[in-house]
């Protein structure tokens, strides 16, 4: 089985960070979104990965090749962002007729991955949500098999959202449906959707079962990213770097601090992740993500997302700042 991870999106909802950093490489609980996904799949036994890259794709390739030198990797370029369906279609020559596990590159789920991989039928990951109109939605037969899927319905008939994880056995049919949709220019919400190809497969008799994930973390927006960071810091606290004593500094767990950081006269935490080689002085930081090689001096930050190589002086309450930024709030 091969894993397909589409990471070609521009991440417009996380700008300005995604002008210089792919969304999948944003730090999260001392790791990155992408490394959490790949680690889960490797632990389940998958050794061959297909990454669909586009915007800043060279950074994705450099990162995974350096971090996972023992894995078999393929990189497929999506030059025009025309949706997840278009992205998956581009992997056809690499995948051929092998079974695949598709995991979207901005989605972290918790489930029994080995059970999913070994299932005798194709599976779609689902979870109940309060408002399914912003997601792909699955409707079920009484038997538990999926009767229909639809992308972002205005009047949903189900509250089961597709979480962005798909185990596909019938890859030949999937690629044929994707190709037919592209040739016929069948778009939903101005893009070629993977959901539409799955519905095509269902109409042609392919059986999909639903599996409910234990947790689902959507990392596509600042608010949900910070919330996910807090949850995962608590979950991964034993796996993160041990907190070292810093000069005249109070650390309130859970906190992840990268290597080479210089922190003094500050209060850090709770729910803070700091990248490598960052300097923090005379500051208070809580519920925030701070990138690598940044410099914070006399700031008060809460619910903030700070990119790498940022330089901030003064006082603030909530910021959303990209890489290579300098701000003086004094």
UniProtKB/TrEMBL annotation:
Keyword Hydrolase: no
GO molecular function, one term: transferase activity
InterPro entries in the cross-refs: NTP_transferase_dom, Nucleotide-diphossugar_trans
Matches recorded under SUPFAM superfamilies: Nucleotide-diphospho-sugar transferases (SSF53448)
Lineage: Bacteria, Pseudomonadati, Bacteroidota, Chitinophagia, Chitinophagales
Official protein name in the record: Glucose-1-phosphate thymidylyltransferase
The Nucleotidyl transferase domain, residue ranges: 2-233
Alphabetical keyword list: Transferase
